[in-house]
Specification:
The structure holds two protein chains of two kinds. Chain A is mainly beta. In chain A, 3% of the residues lie in helices and 36% in strands. In chain A, a hairpin with a 2-residue loop joins strand 9 and strand 10 (103-107). Chain B is an alpha/beta fold. Among the domains of chain B are: 4-111 and 246-306, 3-Layer(bba) Sandwich (FAD/NAD(P)-binding domain); 126-242, 3-Layer(bba) Sandwich (FAD/NAD(P)-binding domain); 496-552, no CATH class; 634-786, Sulfite Reductase Hemoprotein, domain 1. In chain B, 30% of the residues lie in helices and 20% in strands. Chain B starts with a strand and ends in a 10-residue tail after the last strand. The chains are: A mainly beta, B alpha/beta. Chain A binds chain B through residues 10-14, 16-17, 19-22, 24-29, 33-34, 36, 40-41, 54-57, 60-65, 69, 71-74, 76, 87, 102-103, 106, 108, 111, and chain B through 452-455, 459, 522-527, 530-531, 549-554, 557-558, 562, 564-566, 614, 800, 802-803, 806-812, 817-818. Strand 2 (22-27) of chain A pairs parallel with strand 37 (807-808) of chain B.
Chain lengths: 116, 818
């Protein structure tokens, strides 16, 4: 079954725009900067680019497995849930992301600050 | 396929620790069954003394609640002793008749107390001190009776005596040897200990043997202890603490080779390779350990084998001693009694209650015995285990680590004297009380565990010594010291050293190859090992191994320093700290054009432009048109210079010329950690060369070179390397030293720590004495630095430029869509 993008889903990036084990920053959402991560197994994840600890830009962290290590103080954030790994406690906002083939879509209403 | 079956006999600390390690490595490999003779889940046996002393409760010392066994699908038989092992059918048979087959068997039956076979030893009221039941009996006896005798003045005996005294009994310790703790202390220290315990109301009978235990009139309980000098002591409670014996009865009956313990190999296997043994019941290379730290090392190796990894080997442990009696501070390790061929350094202050003895043999610390002030126990223990040469430290060794360099914050160097509210870790704001609480409540034993759990000492690491002291003071002898062999990170058991060797030996060129070859547990490493591997690969095989930007932390990836608000700082290079009007004009123009909020002079004589947005970095670099200052890298940072002979009336050498030449020579040099140099033109040393990784000081006849100084976390004065005559020699010796550090230093190890580890003699031998070796080191450095690109300018530099462009939140332009 083919998924037909609606106007709510914005095709912001293609997979090859994001470095493997790296991230890109999407600018212009009402909720702030958005980090789009790519893991070694070519999965992609989106989080608000804001560490629950001191607000560090997670997009600038080092990506390993399905985690990113915050560039400011090394908190480890799970890319799938946004949750900080123990002993740290906190959660980065997880954002809806859709990948169709090479194309990566973000969900506009959520980026506008509306619940999905 | 059915899982293999692992049966564990013994539900104590050694057996369960092995299972914990195994569950981390291979959670699904085995169906696991555990037999425990005691009716409790695994508890922290070493905290029985605090329970007896009323400082903790039984519930508080449980390490693995029943839920833990359930979560790991472990079948647990509590209060069920195993009576027989049938090695032919590979079945263990329990006292209730239950038969459990095994593919692998782990024996961790611990030890049994030695009960003196004297008349009356079976009377009620005569107990040993081994488990929760013994402890409860003692607590109960203390409520109902007045007099107690403890037979044995060893660690356990004294802890029992202290606990009973605190619970209101009158206690006498009967001890066979001429002084207390004769296996841990020399007579002088033991004398101080005895005084201190006597002042708490304990009584002692030394050099004294027990002849018999006599019953009361009703013949239903012990009433007196008869000694060999025909005197007697009242005692309604007798605690036998005269030693322990490995509990090998079961293994012996199964025909396993035993000799004061089940004989095990370096892989913790008995003579039957399906059967492993760990802990107090095992005899490894002739030693059955009675402390907990070695058990944990054994557990790790044993689990590694059970998980079929097969890379671990246990090669024995050095143990240290500490008494868990609140308010009494003693520590000993190694051959503290001294003897032939050894030197002893002693410090004795009997009225101050302090006594220290260090035993040195062949320039190595081989033993230490401390009483009253044990703050440096962990440091001595570390020196002892590492077998480092202490020749250079000998004069000041007695005065401890705080005398050698800084430890801790607010001037704290003695954990004992800190209040619970005092801050230990200044980076993460962790107090002493929080650490102690984590250690006791969560059952932590190692520095690594404390770091993981509390974050203390996990950032800059300068409070590591304090945290180790707190661990040791909280756990006593059972403190599990940081192993001499330390894994690079959680992804592997290999050390930095092993990884480096393998990369060199097998010509490994990519991280993937290293991880595969060395059996990493993770597919693409972690934030600790990736930068390290990237450095080891590129430094070992320059121009061959490819740099991986995604394995560099953000500063080295963006070639600028990230700040707390996500902006960056830019430090252009000014060779030797020298600039000119054109550069200053460009810097001023850039600052205005890009609205740079802060301009600052750095400690390394550079100008720092702070608060630049990431997207602006390429434009800023272009407008500055100056080389990258590498203020962001584990690399050559700066060469700081004084004015020198060109202007200064005292200058003897041209420090600016020398500094510029060194900085240009070393441009683009990556290293295990940052490297800072300084060149002063005369011994007044205005460039502060004494606290730099390499400090060069001009004298009338040439240059003096100093290495491994540090002005950061650990303030350390640089050590004299050599004196040379010409500029070229300065370059060659400096280059050779830095190349040696690049080849041998561990990632994130500053030169001060590197030289501390290998010894300055080693550095002198390689860099000063060995002329051909020095030339070769220097050539390798030149080769590695050949064509070193400037990441701000050169297209050959590996930079992912996409990082500087942010993506707009709008549909991707169609013409670019694939």
């Amino acid at each position: 079954m083919t998924w037909i993008p609606s106007t709510d889903w914005i095709h912001v990036l293609n997979l090859e725009d994001v470095p493997v084990l790296g991230a890109r920053v999407v600018e212009g959402a009402a909720i702030g900067l958005v980090a789009v991560f790519r893991t070694e197994d070519d999965q992609v994840f989106a989080l608000r680019d804001h560490c629950p600890h001191r607000g560090g830009p997670l997009s600038q962290g080092l990506v390993f497995g399905h985690r990113v290590s915050c560039p400011l103080h090394g908190w480890q954030i799970d890319l799938e849930s946004g949750k900080a790994q123990a002993p740290d406690v906190g959660c980065a906002q997880k954002l809806s992301l859709r990948r169709e083939g090479n194309q990566i879509f973000l969900y506009k209403p959520q980026l506008d600050g509306n619940p999905p | 396929m059915a899982k293999m079956r692992l049966v564990v006999i013994g539900n104590g600390m050694a057996g369960i620790r092995t299972l914990e390690e195994l569950c981390k490595l291979a959670p699904d490999l085995y169906d696991i069954t555990v037999f425990g003779a005691e009716p409790y889940p695994n508890y922290n046996r070493i905290l029985l003394s605090p329970v007896l002393a009323g400082e903790q409760t039984v519930d508080e010392i449980i390490l693995n609640p029943l839920q833990w066994y359930q979560e790991h699908h472990i079948t647990l038989h509590l209060g069920v002793a195993v009576t027989r092992i049938d090695r032919v059918r590979r079945v263990v048979i329990a006292e209730n008749g239950l038969q459990t087959p095994y593919d692998r068997l782990l024996i961790a039956t611990g030890s049994t107390p030695f009960i003196l076979p004297i008349p009356g030893h079976t009377l009620p009221g005569v107990i040993s001190y081994r488990d929760i039941r013994d402890t409860e009996q003692m607590i109960d006896a203390a409520k109902r009776y007045t007099h107690a005798v403890v037979i044995g003045g060893g660690l356990l005996g004294l802890e029992a005596a202290n606990g009973l005294k605190l619970r209101g009994m009158q206690v006498t310790v009967v001890h066979l040897a001429g002084w207390l703790l004769e296996r841990q202390l020399d007579p002088v220290a033991a004398g101080l200990l005895q005084q201190s315990l006597e002042s708490r109301g304990l009584h002692f009978r030394l050099s004294c043997q027990t002849r018999a235990l006599l019953p009361n009139e009703r013949q239903d309980r012990v009433a007196q202890v008869l000694l060999d000098d025909d005197t007697s002591l009242d005692a309604e409670l007798v605690v036998m603490a005269a030693g322990i014996r490995p509990n090998t009865a079961l293994a012996e009956s199964a025909g396993l080779a035993c000799q004061r313990g089940i004989l095990v190999s370096d892989t913790l296997q008995s003579y039957d390779p399906r059967i492993y043994a760990v802990g107090e019941c095992a005899n490894h290379r002739g030693v059955a350990y009675g402390l907990v730290a070695p058990l944990f090392e054994q557990a790790k190796v044993c689990a590694n084998h059970l998980a079929r990894m097969g890379i671990g080997r246990y090669t024995g442990s050095v143990t240290s001693t500490k008494l868990k009696v609140t308010g009494i501070d003693l520590f000993s390790a190694g051959s503290f009694m001294g003897g032939e061929g050894t030197d002893e350094i002693t410090l004795s202050d009997p009225s101050g209650g302090v006594y220290k003895k260090l035993v040195i043999k062949d320039d190595q610390l081989v033993g230490a015995c401390l009483y009253g002030d044990t703050a440096d126990g962990t440091w001595y223990f570390k020196l002892l285990r590492e077998g480092r040469s202490v020749g250079a430290l000998r004069d000041t060794l007695m005065f401890g680590e705080s005398n050698v360099g800084d430890v801790g914050h607010e001037g704290h160097d003695k954990a004992m004297r800190m209040a619970d509210s005092d801050e230990v870790c200044g980076c993460n704001g962790i107090s002493k009380g929080q650490i102690v609480q984590a250690i006791t409540e969560q059952g932590l034993f190692t520095l690594e565990e404390v770091r993981k759990c509390t974050k203390a000492s996990g950032s800059c690491g300068s409070c590591t010594g304090l945290v180790e002291q707190i661990l040791m003071n909280t756990l006593g002898s059972d403190y599990s010291e940081t192993p001499a062999k330390k894994a690079l990170c959680g992804c592997t058991d290999h050390t930095h050293e092993e990884v480096r060797q393998m990369i060199r030996k097998h010509h490994l060129l990519s991280q993937h190859d290293v991880r595969q070859f060395m059996e990493w547990r993770t597919p693409n490493g972690c934030a600790s090992c990736r930068p390290a591997l990237n450095y080891y690969l590129t430094s070992t095989w320059p121009h061959e191994a490819k740099d991986d930007p995604q394995s560099r932390l953000i500063n080295e990836r963006a070639h600028a320093n990230i700040q707390k608000n996500g902006t960056y700082s830019v430090v252009p290079r000014m060779w030797g700290g020298i600039t000119n009007p054109a550069e200053l004009r460009r810097i001023a123009d850039v600052a205005e054009k890009f609205h740079v909020p802060t301009l600052k002079i750095t400690g390394g004589q550079r100008i720092d432009l702070l608060g630049i947005n990431k997207q602006d970095l390429p434009a800023v670099w272009k407008a500055l048109d100056m080389p990258s200052g590498h203020a962001y890298g584990k690399s050559l940072r700066t060469v700081k210079t004084c004015v020198g002979s060109e202007h200064c009336r005292f200058g003897t050498q041209s420090s600016m010329r020398m500094g510029v030449a060194l900085e240009q020579l070393l441009f683009g040099m990556y290293s295990p950690h940052k490297v800072k140099l300084a060149v002063s033109g005369c011994p007044r040393n205005c460039a502060e060369a004494g606290i730099k990784d390499v400090g060069v000081i001009g004298v009338d006849s040439g240059w003096e070179i100093y290495v491994a100084g540090n002005g950061g976390i650990k303030t350390e004065v640089a050590q004299f390397l050599c004196k040379v005559k010409t500029d070229q020699e300065v370059k060659e010796y400096t280059g050779a030293f830095l190349q040696l550090y690049r080849e041998e230093g561990w990632y994130l190890e500053r030169t001060v720590h590197y030289v501390d580890r290998v010894g300055v003699e080693h550095v002198r031998a390689r860099v000063v004495a060995d002329e051909a070796g020095r030339a070769a080191l220097f050539q390798r450095l030149l080769y590695a630095l050949k064509d070193a690109p400037d990441p701000w300018k050169d297209e050959t530099a590996v930079v992912d430029w996409r990082q500087f462009e942010s993506v707009p939140l709008e549909p991707r332009p169609l013409e670019e869509q694939s």
